[in-house]
Amino acid sequence: MSKEKAPVTQAIRVLREHQVSYSEHLYKYEEKGGTTVSARELGVDEHAVIKTLIMEDENKRPLIVLMHGDREVGTGMLAKQIGVKKVHPCDPKTADKHSGYQVGGTSPFGTRHAMPVYMEASIVELERIYINGGKRGFLIGVDPKEALRVLKPVLVSAAA
């Protein structure tokens, strides 16, 4: 673990505002390393590292999808469950614009624009999750029930 001090991001401000208990985990960010790198660096199961994905429907309406690090989003399954024709990942520039975060450091907490949040239902069954804290190389550990309370996501089954 790095000796650096953890940043106070918009995500951290939201967690504090909601009195969420969390742990801070800094690690050496690797371009395109994704959850494989963060799980390895933190010494945790990649299944417990949660990806925050910014996607859009066919009408370019943005949405957030929270998925296990070791799983992919079945966009067809997701679209069907949320009642839209199509869902696809945003390009990085668009994702940054919607979230206010840089891709690789996107947190579902404290996004620039309010967006609907969809969470893979099995995430709630985990004891602890590691999710981006709003900066590359910075994850926070939280009880998934706290994420449920603060984000009020719609639970889906879209893991592929």
How would you characterize this protein structure?
- The protein has 160 residues and is of the alpha/beta class.
- It has five helices and eight strands.
- Strands 1, 2, 3, 4, 5, 6, 7 and 8 form an eight-stranded mixed sheet that branches.
- The longest helix is centred in the first third of the chain and has 9 residues, at 34-42.
- The mean pLDDT is 95.
The biggest beta sheet is recorded as: 8 strands, mixed
Stretches where pLDDT falls below 50 for ≥5 residues? none
| Structure classification | alpha/beta
Strand content: 25-35%
Mean pLDDT value? 95
**Number of E-state strands:** 8
Distance between the termini: 32 Å
How many whole angstroms does the radius of gyration measure? 15 Å
- The ordered H/E elements are HEHEEHEHEEEHE
Number of helices: 5
Helix content: 25-40%
Could you say which overall geometry the principal axes of the C-alpha atoms support?
Answer: globular
Task: Walk me through the topology.
Elements: H1 10-17, E1 23-26, H2 34-42, E2 49-57, E3 62-68, H3 75-82, E4 87-89, H4 92-99, E5 117-120, E6 129-135, E7 138-142, H5 144-151, E8 154-156
Parallel strand pairs: 2-6, 3-5, 5-8
Antiparallel strand pairs: 1-7, 2-3, 2-4, 6-7
Please sum up the structure shown.
It contains 5 helices and 8 strands. The protein has helices at 10-17, 34-42, 75-82, 92-99, 144-151, and strands spanning 23-26, 49-57, 62-68, 87-89, 117-120, 129-135, 138-142, 154-156.
Key terms:
single chain, 160 residues, alpha/beta, 8-stranded mixed sheet, 5 helices, 8 strands, 26% strand, globular
